[in-house]
Design brief:
Number of domains: 1
Shape: globular
Distance between the termini: 25 Å
Largest sheet: 7 strands, mixed
Number of strands: 9
CATH class: Alpha Beta
Strand content: 15-25%
CATH architecture: Alpha-Beta Complex
Length: 272
């Protein structure tokens, strides 16, 4: 079994939610024995459309014309999301003086590498740096929920720790950083999260503690929150039921980032 060498927002969220799920998914690499949501086909289609929407946005950000990309938005969801994104890209992103789409950053965290792949990092003339993340959720989550998620905490912290090469070699100070979730079905309701040095210390200390826990763990217990098992592909393996959770409710719980296609020479990082 290959040794676990990297951690990400997805794997750390799994560890936070259920150490046993983390062990099965990332250490044992057990194939998924059960579907995560019902209805399965509908949710799989929505997930694939979400992934495709990210590709459309990426192509737009690297300079392909909106007219060409619009022809590829060939489902009802994709067309609606694209129609919502176009005015946002022409106004909300217009003030950015520099853009980097699909950027992966890396930094050492204990014995691991902490990795994050960003949809868009944009610099503005006023010295601010914005992290944009595109979401195709069917329900708009509460800001309070998003603020506690490891994605929100890791993406800001890692940009402060490993983003100097995006700023002419000068590290971003936390107060420069703002993370924005833009929701394709709620285009006028983005979620915005600024950052401070105090939050950075809190987050990095917490991440270091998690990495040490994982390194030294001899067991990975199941969660006490049985409700989370409804959205877990290992619930039958763990004897936590067989029925999958409803798709709309499960969407936020089951989001998994795309696999990293890594070329470490091209990843911004802190040296060991």
């Amino acid at each position: 079994m290959p040794e676990l060498t990297s951690l990400s927002q997805s794997s750390l969220q799994d560890y936070h939610d259920c150490p046993r799920r983390f062990e099965l998914r990332y250490i044992q690499q057990l194939a998924y024995p059960a579907i995560e949501t019902e209805p399965a086909l509908e949710n799989e289609k929505h997930q694939k459309e979400g992934e495709y929407f990210h590709r459309l946005v990426q192509q737009n950000l690297i300079g392909i014309s909106p007219e060409q990309i619009g022809k590829l938005a060939n489902t009802e969801n994709l067309q609606r999301w694209w129609d919502n994104f176009l005015p946002f890209s022409q106004t909300g992103l217009a003030s950015l003086s520099h853009r980097q789409a699909e950027v992966t950053l890396s930094a050492p965290l204990g014995k691991f590498r902490l990795l994050a792949k960003y949809d868009l990092i944009g610099l503005s003339e006023d010295g601010k740096v914005y992290i944009y993340d595109w979401k195709t959720y069917r329900k708009r989550p509460k800001n309070e929920w998003l603020a506690t998620r490891w994605q929100t905490r890791i993406y800001r912290a890692l940009l402060a720790k490993a983003g100097a090469h995006l700023n002419n070699g000068k590290p971003f100070v936390p107060e420069q950083i703002e993370m924005i979730y833009w929701f394709a079905d709620f285009p006028s309701e983005p979620a915005r999260f600024t950052y401070t040095a105090t939050q950075l210390k809190r987050d990095w200390d917490a991440l270091t503690t998690l990495a040490d826990e994982i390194t030294n763990a001899s067991t990975f217990p199941k969660t006490d929150d049985i409700a989370k098992c409804s959205y877990c592909p290992y619930r039958s393996f763990c004897n936590r039921g067989t029925k999958a959770g409803d798709g709309l409710d499960a969407e936020l719980e089951t989001e998994v980032e795309e696999l990293f296609d890594l070329n470490f020479e091209q990843i911004g990082e802190i040296e060991f």
